[in-house]
Amino acid sequence: MNGPVPVEVLKQHLIDPEICIRCNTCEETCPIDAITHDENNYVVRADTCNGCMACISPCPTGAIDNWRDVLRAEAYPVDEQLTWDELPVQDDTLAGQGSIGEATEGAAGGGSTGGAESAEPVIGGSDLVRGSVVPPWSAAKPYVNLYNHKAPVQATVVGNYRVTDASTESDIHHIVLDFGKQPFPVLEGQSIGIIAPGTTADGRAHHARQYSIASPRDGERPGYNNLALTVKRVTKDHHGQAVGGVCSNYLCDLKKGDVVNVMGPFGSTFLMPNHADSHLLMICTGTGAAPMRAMTEYRRRRRMKGATGKLMLFFGARTQGELPYFGPLLNLPKDFIDTNLAFSRTPGQPKRYVQDAMRERAADVAALLRHDHTYIYVCGLKGMEDGVLQVLQTIAGEAGLDWPSLWQRMKTEGRLHLETY
User: Fold this and answer.
1) Spatial distance between the Cα atoms of 331 and 11, rounded to a whole number of angstroms
2) Model confidence over 207-226: pLDDT tens digits?
């Protein structure tokens, strides 16, 4: 006697468009290219995703951690997901019947991976995730996603200052936002989303844009419910063509007293350690200085309260005039922070990048690499990431350290954090 044809139910991986801030972390992290995007949404290909979970922890907002039980034959196609403004409601008749691992069957490349092993998600993520996906053990507990697109919090501009030389094309601003009595607790290394007013050409509201916080947890002004951002005015795209960055120009043009819609906070891993003997090795370019400034200022304020760890900074820019916070950096005590600057476009001088400065200080970098309480933070343009990791490998090798095993251990222990864009 013939039985009923079994119905295949898939636990489909989806990205919430209401929470997603389009930071591209998930697409860069995915080891099998299951995530794609257009100008509207980031989406997951149902026939490619194998439920490895590599993208879950790095997502700063949690938008990536969404699932819907669907009939496999009726999985939401990519073209439909790209049009969404919100996630579809779960069909209660299917809820709980799906399995994350079932997505491995029929994955791109042809055929099923087969066997029970294919149904077990890889909880640790992929080896292609090159930095830590866990915070330092002593980091303070972060608050995340307190405010979203539908219900943002309003902040008032209390300061907007250019922090690069007026003679340069690099227009970078230090912007201070005050939240008044509205709770907005943040930690160094976290970010927020800013929603620019107006709509796109097709009438959609602008997506939020992500900006790292440049001030410590107790406020840009100590004891106040405010924070600072480091924002560069975007006037050209990656190909050098003239373009106006909608949110960056909006922020850089703000005046004192203006009100801004804010989402967040975001981020639960790129956090600083709180134990007093921890060392910070910070490597950044341009506006990637924001989280480094926050961490440095927090340590400076606590310097007389038991913080004994070393701070070493490598900071790169095209020229001295294009390096934000140049003056204040030079005023920091030499026995508090070891600052190394690198300029790649100084007239009459050879190009010099942060990697070159690190090589020049190889012995001191190696000493930090040997220390179990050293935490490394890299923030800036994506192009710097390979070079920084390569020079760390070289310095480690020359010092007799096994870089592959050290790299893996630092990732596992929450001591190697990469935030590049």
Assistant:
1) 55
2) 899 999 999 999 999 999 99
Handedness of CA 286, 288, 292, 294 (dihedral sign): positive
| Closest alpha carbon to 338 in 319, 315, 306, 372 | 315
Is 325 exposed, middle or buried, given 0-12, 13-18 or 19+ CB atoms closer than 10 A? buried
Neighbours of 96 (CB within 10 A): 9
Number of C-beta neighbours around residue 380 at 10 A? 24
Q: What size, in residues, is the chain?
A: 421
Question: Side chain identity at 27, as an amino acid letter?
Answer: E
Nearest to 323 by CA among 301, 299, 339, 336: 339
Distance CA 324, CA 307 (A): 26
Q: Which residue has the tokens 């596992």?
A: 412
Six-digit token string for 75:
């999985």
Find residue 282's DSSP bridge partners: 313, 377
pLDDT the model gives residue 104:
35
Question: Is 177 in contact with 260 (CB distance < 8 Å)?
Answer: yes
pLDDT bracket for residue 115 (50, 70, 90): very low
Closest CA to 354 of 406, 292, 296: 292
Provide the b/e sequence for 223-259 (b: ≥16 CB within 10 Å). eebbbbbbbbbbeeeeeeeeeebbbbebbbebeeeee
Strand partners, 229: 175, 213
- The confidence score (pLDDT) of residue 382 equals 85
Contacts of 324 (CB under 8 A, 6+ apart): 163, 164, 172, 174, 230, 286, 287, 289, 317
pLDDT tier at 98 (50, 70, 90 boundaries)? low
8 Å CB contact between 126 and 133: no
DSSP 205: B
Give the SS3 label for residue 16.
coil
